[in-house]
Structure formats: C-alpha cells, structure tokens
Design brief:
With 294 residues, the protein is of the alpha+beta class. The protein is 20% helix and 23% strand. The protein has two domains: 107 residues, Immunoglobulin-like (Sandwich); 145 residues, no CATH class.
Length: 294
C-alpha cells in the first residue's frame, strides 16, 4: 500500500478529540530500535539503473511549503530499502535539486527531505551502488495565513468532552453497554476539540499516550486523504488495534472544519509538524475511570 515506511496504522481512538490522523511510518520509530539492522552502505556515486530490488518509502510523498514566510519548516522522512534492508543512499531531486535539502535521519536510517520551494512536483532519486529508485514528491503551495488558520484550529484549547464527542456514538455504545458521561452543564462548544487533546507527546485529555500524526505517519497521504480522515472519518489503512473502525468513523468528523480554506489550513499545519516516532496507544485505564469503558 506504500503508506508507511515499515507498517500501516492510524491514530484514532474512542472519544478522541484529535483532528487528523495518518498512516504510521513507525520504522523509523523506537519500536524498531530493539532489533537493529545493519544497513547496506552505498559504494559511491556513478552510473545506475532502475532496479526492482531498491525501493523508496514513501513511494509517493506529500508535503507543503509556505511561499510568503520563512518561519515554518516542512520535512518528510524517506528510506531506501535494498532487497528489504535499509540502505545508505545518495539522494538527489529533479528537475530542481535546490527545491529540497537532504540530511541524514538517525531516527530512520534514511534521510529527512526538507522542502525549500513550492515546486509542485519533484522526483526524489535514491542511488545505492548501481541500483536506482525514484519516488514522486508533491508539494502544496500555501501562505502564512493558511498556516496560522491551521495552527489556530489545531491548538484552539477546546477540551475533549466525552459527553460531546461521544454523543455521536451514543447509539452504537448503548448497544455495547457503554455509558458516556453527560455533556458539560454549559452545553457543548461549537468548535471541535483541540487536536492536542488526543495527539502529540502529551495529549491533554489523558486518554491517549504519544499518538502522533506527523509527516512520519502521514507523509504518504494525499491532501484529500488527510481531509477525509478529519472531516469524513474515513481511512482505508485504519489500525483496529485502537478501537473498532465503526466507532472511530462516527466521531472523527469535525464539522467545524467545513470549508476548503479551513481544510487546506489544517493540512498545511499538519505537514509542518516535526516528524516524530509513533509509540502511542490508548489509555484504557483512563477511559474506564471516565465511565467510557466498562
């Protein structure tokens, strides 16, 4: 499916207030560090030919770039695998080598691709010995106003109220014998909860632990696929080890992100997150204490 470096997954869970999720690259994560693999070392630049034995992950990459500000960094990790083994590659880009910068990525053993221009389509090349592989990078041009709008929604400070988010799930949960806390006395806020309630290193709601949706997890999703995840609750790579898909699908539909401009803003902000390892999960103890799970 080509969505992740070493595996597919999704950041999602019952009563999550998160605003976006993505396929996890996890390779790159601490979970793989316990079984280190000796990389294939490149023998140096020179002539090469396309080879099925060499693969770039992500096979298709998606990022963004703010054209009227230099305040934000957009990066995406890439790994070269030779015969299924991580390889130290020589990385280049065409048609414009200056449109990106490649730096070694100790976390993945690959490279971090830093986007330096709004060149809409680039070919990212990896060479290991005489073998070459190529992946496409698509870049969405954006403005500072786009980033600011995404930042404001992502970090809007609205708490995760189980009685509000879970109201969408009430019929399904009732059939499963699960009772949710009531909404707050003042009613449910118009805005959806902050994405930081359920995503990041220290999600504020306490239901989840280190669940990431950075470019290390989402770099293989198109803009529209990301929008479908946080607006329509649809993701064909969803990892059911979190909660049943039918639950996640019902609540992960943030109706306040309701225009193309708002949706683009969220995508741009998500693309600007620093790539991070995925090692998160659902805190079932907290869900139980909140009366969400029996």
């Amino acid at each position: 499916m080509g969505r992740s470096i070493l595996g597919l997954g999704v950041v999602g869970a019952l009563v999550a207030g998160a605003c976006a999720v993505g396929a996890t690259i996890g390779a790159c994560s601490s979970s793989s560090s316990s079984s280190p693999v000796t990389p294939v070392v490149d023998s140096g630049p020179g002539a090469c030919s396309q080879s099925d034995s060499l693969q770039i992950l992500f096979g298709k990459m998606y990022s963004a770039y703010v054209t009227d500000s230099t305040s934000h960094t957009f990066q995406i990790p890439a790994i070269a695998n030779l015969n299924g083994v991580p390889a130290t590659a020589i990385w280049t880009a065409v048609p414009d080598q200056g449109a990106v910068r490649f730096t070694p990525d100790p976390a993945t053993g690959g490279t971090l691709v830093t986007v330096l221009s709004a060149t809409p389509t680039l070919k990212i090349n990896a060479q290991v010995g005489s073998a070459c592989a190529q992946a496409e990078l698509q870049v969405t041009a954006a403005t500072e106003a786009d980033w600011q709008a995404g930042n404001a929604r992502y970090n809007n400070g609205v708490p995760v109220y189980p009685g509000c988010v879970g109201a969408k799930l009430a019929p399904e949960l009732a059939e499963a014998g699960i009772d949710l806390p009531p909404p707050p006395d003042g009613g449910c806020p118009d805005a959806g909860p902050a994405c930081t309630g359920c995503h990041g290193d220290m999600p504020t709601a306490g239901f989840f632990q280190g669940v990431q949706h950075t470019p290390e997890q989402t770099g293989g999703f198109t803009d529209q696929e990301l929008i479908d995840i946080f607006v329509n609750g649809t993701d064909h790579t969803y990892d059911t080890t979190y909660v049943p898909y039918e639950y996640w699908h019902v609540f992960h539909t943030w109706t306040d992100i309701d225009t193309p401009a708002k949706q683009k803003a969220m995508v741009v902000y998500l693309r600007s997150l620093k790539p991070m390892d995925e090692d998160g999960g659902v805190n079932f103890g907290v869900l139980h204490d909140a009366g969400i799970l029996d």
